[in-house]
Structures are given as C-alpha cells and as structure tokens.
Design brief:
The chain is α+β, with helices and mostly antiparallel strands. The protein folds into two domains: about 1-50, no CATH class; about 70-120, no CATH class. Helices cover about 25% and strands about 20% of the residues. The strands form two sheets. It has a four-stranded antiparallel sheet with strand order 1-4-5-6, with no helix packed on it. It has a two-stranded antiparallel ribbon with strand order 2-3. A hairpin with a 4-residue loop joins strand 5 (about 105-110) and strand 6. The chain starts with a helix and ends with a strand.
C-alpha cells in the first residue's frame, strides 16, 4: 500500500501543500471506495469497514507514578532539568512527561509510551 501511495501521489510532487493534500485525499477515496482488494476477496474496504464499538477517550487519565520516581516535563525546546543541569531529550517530546530513575550505570528517562533510554 505505501509503495502504491508514494508512486501515485508523490511523483512528481504537487506545487503546494493544499494540492498535495488533495492528491492524497483522492488516492484515499479511490483506495477505500473504488479499488477492489485481493486480500478482501475483491471487496472494497469501505464496504466491509465497521467502526469500533469502543469509545475513544477524549483524553488519557493522568498516570500515577511510584513515589520514589521523579517526573520532569519536557519543555518547548526538548530540554528538561535534572538537578542543576539542563538535559536535551528531543523536540518531538515537547509537553510530554518523563519519569527519571537511576539504573546501575545511567540516569534513565522513561516515557508514557514505555520507551526508555539513558540520559547520561
């Protein structure tokens, strides 16, 4: 699917973002509503799609961490403070909370997603 999407919508690229988005939207409509899919028994995805009955939460509840862990919020420039130092994590984490814990070899940041990595 991604190869087809790229081939049909990005070569050559459109002149503006609005035109490029229009091209993506047209591809999505064709892919889901007009084109039969072999893996679906030659049916179109739109004919068999059913939305999930589970409600999607408006927001996630706050996470409660163990009292011995320290939390830090990642600032707009991807930095957080640890003791008297500023440590860069990533700008993509802006606004996210990180939990800090000390391992035997490094200070480790653990994110809500479960991703973890050494900071020092």
């Amino acid at each position: 699917m991604h190869r087809t999407l790229k081939a049909e919508t990005t070569r050559p690229p459109e002149q503006t973002m609005d035109l490029q988005q229009k091209r993506f939207d047209e591809f999505r409509n064709m892919f889901n509503n007009e084109r039969p899919h072999e893996t679906l028994g030659q049916k179109r995805p739109a004919t068999i799609y059913r939305p999930s009955p589970r409600p999607y939460p408006e927001s996630l509840p706050p996470i409660e961490y163990a009292s011995h862990l320290e939390t830090r919020k990642i600032s707009h420039n991807g930095m957080m403070r640890w003791k008297r130092e500023r440590i860069f994590t990533s700008k993509t984490l802006t606004g996210e909370w990180s939990v800090l814990k000390r391992s035997t070899t490094a200070l480790v940041a653990v994110l809500r997603t479960g991703a973890a990595g050494p900071l020092r």
